[in-house]
Design a protein that fits this description.
Layout (H helix, E strand, L loop, with lengths): L2 E3 L24 H12 L2 H12 L4 H29 L3 H4 L1 H4 L5 H33 L10 E2 L2 E2 H18 L2 H31 L2 H6 L6 H18 L1 H6 L1 H4 L5 H34 L6 H6 L4 H23 L1 H10 L6 H13 L10 H29 L24 H19 L10 H19 L13 E3 L1
């Protein structure tokens, strides 16, 4: 790839994977973004989270309201942060330098990478359950391997996890082009499985009427706190994408393509998928007397090898789909940004999934309280960074970045030796306000709104600090005079 600049970029800030993508090489259409989002929202964790709302005592209508509100907030934040990626062809780790400085940017980038790798670990373990279900159909005694424990897990679970890990590595090895084509068929495949289970649920409940007539059991005085905590939790599942969506929209053929594609793929498909989850989980209440939010456990209830095999295969593909795009692409760019001289996208992607194994998700995955707490903390931690990034692009820079300035160690984005202390003060304030309810009992009610508080406080504090310092706002135009290979 060749990129034209007037000035020599610093080798510690530049390599081909971080460079602006020329317009002629941006070939992702609205269909690519639609199918990518299908793959990301149609996954086991999203399914379980939507289904678990029934387990919390919500009615089907209340659960759908949570999903709709979360989707409206998500698509608004994602659209806002998508524009700069499409405009400049740059990934998140480069764009964030404008707010935090070329050295300071490493802090939010590494936090985001850590969160994404954590989610890779969670999704990989959830998907490996589907692998185990398929293997159990063809290998007698597979379940008995669970009695052999190693590293705190049954041997069958570890083998399933290892197989699933190798599948991820295979997809990653050929970079973004393989990921794009994989997503084209992975997302729609899961819809077929979901629709089959919806038909079963309607049949088991003798119609949709009984499903939507199941009353809520959640006490009224707990409803709104649970409602907004659930909204924050659903946002937390995709909180990393709010930040690193430029990693994907930098390939967009036009702003129109990314806007339309994401509108079809995120709010429409996620609401549809959540509706299927709510209907299916409500159907299990009628069919089995209890809500079953885990799709793998639901498949095993059918006792039919063909149903289990096809269902588990669909879940496996769905989980790889979301894991690669949402949880490997982002840290791959992040780690490359940290060591651009030594790493590229593929190497960093493999390093990310190796680190993901160290989270040992089998040791705590089934603890629902821990998962909910972690999801909330993720939203609260990343929210301020999203608020700062959006405020910087639209209100401080007036939608104009000096592209060359993002790759050099002097100029507007140098701040104080590469660090912008005002951005860090705003981020800390946002995180403290977002998470204070988790640590101060008298303020516990605030924790339900952690993501919203984090975004709002981070953005407002950043704008106030930047304007108080009388930071100059300029418009920049890159005049290409030099060709860098």
């Amino acid at each position: 790839m060749s990129v034209e600049f007037r000035r020599e970029p610093d080798p510690g800030l530049y390599n081909p994977d971080l460079a602006p993508i020329p317009q002629e090489k941006r070939n992702w259409t609205w269909l690519n973004y639609s199918t990518i989002w299908m793959g990301m929202v149609h996954n086991i964790v999203s399914y379980e989270l939507a289904g678990s709302l029934i387990g919390l005592g919500m009615s089907a209508w209340q659960a759908l309201a949570v999903v709709v509100v979360a989707n409206v907030v998500l698509i608004a934040a994602i659209w806002l942060n998508s524009v700069c990626g499409t405009k400049y062809g740059l990934p998140f780790p480069v764009l964030i330098r404008a707010a935090f400085g070329y050295k300071g940017a490493h802090v939010p980038v590494l936090i985001r990478a850590f969160v994404a790798i954590f989610w890779f670990s969670v999704q990989a373990y959830a998907g490996s359950k589907a692998v185990g279900a398929v293997i159990g159909l063809v290998i007698p005694g597979w379940v008995s391997l669970g009695n052999v424990h190693l590293l705190g897990a049954g041997l069958n679970d570890l083998i399933s996890f290892a197989i699933f890990w190798v599948i991820h590595a295979f997809v990653i090895m050929h970079g973004m082009e393989r990921i794009k084509y994989f997503e084209m068929w992975a997302g729609p495949l899961v819809i077929v499985l979901g629709l089959g289970l919806v038909v079963w649920a309607i049949h088991a409940a003798h119609g949709l009427g009984p499903i939507f007539s199941i009353p809520a059991t959640l006490p009224r005085d707990h409803f709104w706190g649970t409602f907004f905590l659930s909204v924050s939790g659903m946002i937390g599942v995709l909180a990393t994408l709010v930040l690193n969506i430029p990693d994907l929209t930098r390939f967009a053929r036009s702003q129109r393509d990314q806007v339309i594609g994401q509108a079809v793929g995120l709010p429409i498909m996620m609401t549809f998928f959540a509706l299927m989850s709510v209907v299916i989980t409500s159907g299990t209440v009628i069919a089995f007397g209890k809500p079953i939010a885990d799709p793998v456990q639901l498949l095993l209830h059918f006792k039919n090898p063909i149903v289990i095999f096809l269902g588990a295969f669909s879940l496996l593909i769905a989980t790889v789909s979301v894991n690669v795009v949402a949880n490997v692409v982002s840290p791959a760019y992040d780690l490359t940004n940290l060591l651009p001289k030594k790493l590229n996208f593929v190497k960093s992607g493999i390093i990310s999934i190796v680190i993901g194994v160290l989270f040992a998700p089998w040791a705590w995955f089934n603890n629902s309280d821990s998962i909910l707490t972690v999801i909330g903390a993720i939203g609260g931690t990343l929210g301020p960074v999203a608020g700062i990034m959006i405020a910087d692009f639209y209100l401080i820079r007036r939608r104009n970045y000096d592209v060359e300035g993002l790759f050099i160690t002097e100029g507007e984005y140098a701040f104080r030796s590469g660090w912008n202390p005002r951005a860090f003060i705003a981020m800390v304030l946002g995180v403290v306000v977002a998470l204070i309810g988790l640590f101060v009992p008298s303020l516990h009610g605030l924790y339900a709104y952690n993501w919203f508080l984090g975004v709002g406080v981070g953005a407002i504090a950043y704008m106030a600090l930047m304007y108080s310092a009388r930071t100059p706002v300029h418009s920049f135009a890159v005049v290409p005079t030099r060709n860098l290979e």
